[in-house]
Design a protein that fits this description.
The chain is of the alpha+beta class. 53% of the residues lie in helices and 19% in strands. A hairpin with a 7-residue loop joins strand 1 and strand 2.
Length: 79
């Protein structure tokens, strides 16, 4: 699932969080919009890291989990 943070409409301060053609939320604070849009990515990254902390020993899986986590953090920060 991917949530996208995009302008509500041109000239608006509002941001729409959408998944496909489904409106998830409309927010008027850019920081909140970034965090809401990143929620599914943050959850997936946390799940991947939790799986590795549970005893994973595959270096490639660790690197993939780390990459997911860093990408989710960047998305939450609006980068």
């Amino acid at each position: 699932m991917t949530w996208i943070n995009e302008p509500e409409f041109e000239g608006s301060d509002g941001r729409e969080i959408v998944s496909g053609h489904t409106l998830i939320a409309t927010v008027y604070n850019t920081t909140d919009a970034h965090l809401i849009a990143a929620a599914p990515d943050l959850l997936a990254a946390c799940e991947a890291m939790a799986a590795q902390l549970g005893g994973g020993d595959n270096f490639d899986q660790w690197e993939e989990a780390k990459a997911q986590l860093l990408a989710a953090i960047a998305k939450a920060k609006g980068a």
